[in-house]
Amino acid sequence: MKKRALVTGGAGFVGSYLVEALLSKGYQVIVVDNLSTGRRENIPDACRFYQIDIESPKLLQLFAKEKPNIVWHLAALTDTSVSLESILHDLEINLLGTLNTLKAASQIKCEKFIFTSTAAVYGDTPKLPISENSALNPISPYGVGKLTCENYVRMFCDFYGIKYTILRYGNIYGPRQYQKGGSGAIPIFIKKMLSGETPFLFGDGNQIRDYVYVDDVVEATLKAINKGDSKIINIGTTKGISTRRLYKLIATLLDFKASPKLIAGRSGEIVNSVLASNLAKKELKWRPKTDIKDGLDKTVKWWKGIKH
Ligand SMILES: NC(=O)c1ccc[n+]([C@@H]2O[C@H](COP(=O)([O-])OP(=O)(O)OC[C@H]3O[C@@H](n4cnc5c(N)ncnc54)[C@H](O)[C@@H]3O)[C@@H](O)[C@H]2O)c1
Question: Which residues line ligand 1 (CB under 6 A)?
């Protein structure tokens, strides 16, 4: 009998790639998504799709019916600026939604729970790259919420005897990442440059970020099926790139000549973030493969081929 994999947020950017990979590996895939930022066309017909909120009591009935073996919990409100504007909304989806998903998973005692966390749990850290043992000082409601969820995942899974892995992703990019609100420098830059508008950079544009290509992230996320039990693992490249340099790389690919506009930095935004990936190498036998120039090239080509 096919193993059943349930993906919350499976209609979203990362989730949709994960779903495709799980189907190609022969899993029966169940997607839970309210389509708030995800897209119906991202969900392959071979999946069983439930359009519901992760906070809904219906989630418990759904888990009882589908009895997934493995749960990937990706559904979240992912925009840091939205989390700052609407703290309670962030809490409702990211914290209460995660608690409800954990409750549903523990009720059926699934085999493994994989939680997608973020580099935002570290906040601003003077020493780069950031290892998993670094201080945890999130500076946005999104980061605080994800860190709290990590603790609930550990606590629930230990209590109910469920295996778990927590993955702290860097800045993911790639095709299918639509621009949502004010987050995601890469889709914002590409979209603006394609429409002839000059993008702006926050502060001096020298912030350093760790951009990791979506295919690499999905590979690591799949490896967590049978590796990395009870571990919290960074998924990044160990290489930082400044926002200014990122702008230049994208501008070159699009033959966009204008220099960026500079505007004041935003609160809640981390200045520098680069994730060490030694633990991922050791525990998941994973390392990122995609060079930023190749990843950006694929991403730009995708943007050129879609209506936006
Ligand atoms: N993209 C990144 O750079 C990045 C970095 C670090 C961590 N992450 C984490 O990875 C996960 C996936 O992120 P993404 O970039 O694919 O985001 P996304 O917004 O594309 O995907 C999130 C999905 O969750 C769904 N969703 C949101 N609220 C829901 C709710 N209440 N009930 C049901 N479904 C709901 C959305 O419709 C969407 O399909 C998130 O947990 C995010 O915090 C992403």
Answer: 9, 11-15, 33-38, 53-55, 74-78, 93, 97, 116, 118, 169, 171-172
